[in-house]
Amino acid sequence: RVHGDLSRAQKMLITGNASQLRLAILGLATVLQLLFSLFFGYIGIARAIAPIQRKLHLISSLTNCVGAIGTLLQIGAADHDASTTIRYLIYLGTTPFLIVQLHLLTDSPLDVQVTAASLQAMVIICGSAGQLHSSVAMGVALFVLGCVFFVAHLALLVRSYLEFVNLMSRHTNEPVARRLRAIRNFQVFSIATWLLFPCWWWAERFRFLPDKWEPLLMLLFSFLTKGVLGFLIW
Prior knowledge:
Elements: H1 2-47, H2 51-75, H3 80-105, H4 110-132, H5 136-168, H6 174-194, H7 196-205, H8 214-233
Helix pairs in contact: 1-2, 1-8, 2-3, 2-8, 3-4, 4-5, 5-6, 6-8
């Protein structure tokens, strides 16, 4: 009995430490995104010269603010499923705006921006439904459908970039060349980052990673998608 009591006490201690670590990481992610939001907001309002720069920085500020609020809500989530649902709501409230940033860089018209943001929203909706669905087969089917929307969005992004390059090809000065290189690097980094999310989806859906990894991955992906991309624009 004594050994049983010790075993229960050890399990409670481990669970308590894991819970405290989760809260600490999510708290750090919240603070980090708030700092990013304040920084990009300041840059957009006080330092941006061109209107396009102001829009880009203010979008970065907005997405980090929404992300911080969502991460704060995750701290109070009752269980892993609730935390996952909130995480996908964060994606839905931030990622379409990040997509708009990419299309603003290539001077895409408003209808293209709306279409791209809508396609990305469908990717997130399919991904979240597939993750939370009780049937593995249906979950995978929804994942595949999300991939179809993703490919459609990727094709639209590439087309917008190529059209912009063609438009700018009549200007051969160095500033234009630098802008094209910067846009290409930004898009390549964005796409490389996006490809990490399907890996996380599979790892989470089939329990390749324990639930305790979620806060750490949240911190990492928040830093990459909302912080690093914002600094690349800056």
